[in-house]
Design a protein that fits this description.
This protein is 17% helix and 50% strand. The protein has helices spanning 2-30, 62-69, 137-145; strands spanning 89-99, 105-117, 122-135, 154-175, 179-198, 205-221, 226-242, 247-248, 251-252, 256-274. It has an 8-stranded antiparallel beta barrel.
Amino acid sequence: MSREKTSKNRTAIGFAIALLMSMQAQAQSKKPVPPPPPAAQSGPTQITTVKPVTGNDKVDITDLENKYWAPKDTDFSVVQNRTFSKDHKWSIAPSWGRPINDAHSEGNIYGVTANYFWSERMGAQFTYLKADLENNDATNDLAVYGSGVQPDHGKFTSYIGIGYNIVPFYAKMSFWGKKIIYFDLAFTPTIGLTGYDQVMEGGNNGKSALTYGLDISQFYFFSRWLALRVDLKNQWHVEEIVKYRGTTAPNIKGAKVTDKNIHDTMFLVGAMFYF
């Protein structure tokens, strides 16, 4: 009996040992394999910190601004081919207009202007004007209600002069969205002689005076040989004013009253022909 119990005990212990060893083997097979160690680096390790981007962070564009505002290595200019050229051309422009600021007279002014442009920006001009003026309403009212009395004044009759054209602006504009019109804007200092009448009862006396001025002109091109010319002329001279009527000294008719600075402003429109 004792031998059978000992045999059974040995069998049970062997079975238990075999079961334990089997469970241990299974546990080792399921254990994860650790990763291999990192390779050795030749230099020091550099750690980069990435800053998170949030809604309040701003992009630094200082370098971009410095490059934008830096002086350029080369000067650039925009060149536009002109549709209508004045370079080395003559022009002639008959014109008609009216005085704007004459206190005593109104009427028509006729003229002709000749130009020569040796470049698109520079040129010379010659102008002749002839005036057909009469008393305006204010002067006539004074004559009627003042027993024939008129103010002592002079009346513009003519002008001849030369000028130096400076044309800084050349542009184009749309007309009713259907046509492109090209135009120049010119400034012209002038010098010349103004003819005027010393107005006197019974007959006027013609005089002339040195005149300087400044013309502002626009040329609206329709073709290479035709343009519309618009002039605003400003001219200054000194007139000798005499008595309109008088019979006793010192107020004798024709006696000098004063020297008066006169500013004539005229608006003229004309056709400009190029050749």
